[in-house]
Amino acid sequence: DKGTYPYYMLKEIDEQPAVIRRIESKYISQEGNVHFDEKLLEQVSKASRIYIVGAGTSYHAGLVGKKIFEKMTGIPTEVVLASEFAYDDPLIEKDAFFIFLSQSGETADSRQVLVRVNEEWQKNSLTITNVANSTLAREAQFAVTLEAGPEIAVASTKAYVAQIALETLLAVAIGRYNQRDSALHFDVAGQLSRVANAIQTVVDEKSQIEKIAESNLTNTRNAFYIGRGLDYDVALEAALKLKEISYVQAEGFASGELKHGTIALIENGTPVLGLITQTKTADHTRSNLEEVISRGANVITITSEKLQRDGDNIILPEVDEILTPLVSVVATQLLAYYTTLQKGYNVDQPRNLAKSVTVE
Ligand code: F6R
């Protein structure tokens, strides 16, 4: 039931602080310990490599997860597109561990990889899904649930945030299991609570984002999201969200890579949305934004408080830098939502798309 909401998507965006809190209360004890099946932790902690498998938005959540896993666990982690990996000829190490990310747990591309994991490679696996009794949950060796509640809108929002929260908890639990300082010293409960509050601030200020959508995106044919590192990962998800519901031709791009060709597409007024939440790369992304401004682009910046400068457009409350995707993505979900609403399209039911994709 969408209650007083015009669309499920807006309801699901608004639910995200509650989703983070629900995940915290399910997986973190009073003392701040993270709870997963002991056998799961034992197996992943001795993996020589972790593969994260997903499609669409779940793949994008995997890109962020890779960086969190490597930081917390020290285990090399690779993220793969299910539809590609299903027919690739990868060199799988003996102690590989597979993590499947799937909101529905029914995506045929991901299942095809799981069939190979079970039959051909005989490796250990975990499915992280919103649907406890789904195919992927049943066919993997382990399963954990996202606790996001049913996601009805075709465009995935709260599942992405829930997936990254779960990846963070799992990475911290594995890192602690292996006595890694980066995980032992990370106050995951405190940091996720900060994230929940920060998302709340973003959704409370949605009318400002609505105005930015109206004056910059509603009347454009194309747009770019750019960023580096984790901001690049979010740029890919932000662009997918915008294109799938508003039909603006949007592209997520590594900001440093633009000048190697794609900058040719920048014309007078082309919207370029810059994500700037990482200290290490903020100045570089700012120079890349200067490059597109000098070609006439209409630049919109999304930055964290710490890195903000005069004239920035959307300022996000401060959270630990590795968790900024959880907050910045919400601003981009709202931009996609309002652009679509203003164009008069059905936000929840975009053309040509279904909620779960059960064909390869
Ligand atoms: C985008 C979207 C899709 C799904 C993809 C994977 O908003 O919803 O890209 O993320 O089809 O679906 P799941 O996570 O159910 O495997």
Characterise the protein shown here:
The chain has 360 residues and is an alpha/beta fold. It is built from 14 helices and ten strands. The strands form two sheets. A five-stranded parallel sheet has the order 2-1-3-4-5, sandwiched between helices. Strand 8 (271-276), helix 13 and strand 9 (298-304) form a beta-alpha-beta unit. Helix 2 (16-27) packs antiparallel against helix 10 (188-204), helix 3 (38-45) crosses helix 8 and helix 12 (230-246) runs parallel beside helix 14 (325-343). It is globular, with a radius of gyration of 20 Å. The model has no long low-confidence stretch (mean pLDDT 97). The structure holds fructose -6-phosphate. Fructose -6-phosphate binds next to helix 4 and helix 12. Fructose -6-phosphate binds at residues 55-58, 102-104, 107, 110, 155-156, 240, 244, 356-357.
Ordered list of secondary-structure elements with their pairings:
Elements: H1 8-14, H2 16-27, H3 38-45, E1 49-54, H4 56-73, E2 77-81, H5 82-85, E3 96-102, H6 108-119, E4 124-129, H7 135-139, E5 142-145, H8 158-177, H9 181-184, H10 188-204, H11 206-216, E6 222-227, H12 230-246, E7 249-254, E8 271-276, H13 279-293, E9 298-304, E10 314-316, H14 325-343
Parallel strand pairs: 1-2, 1-3, 3-4, 4-5, 6-7, 6-8, 8-9, 9-10
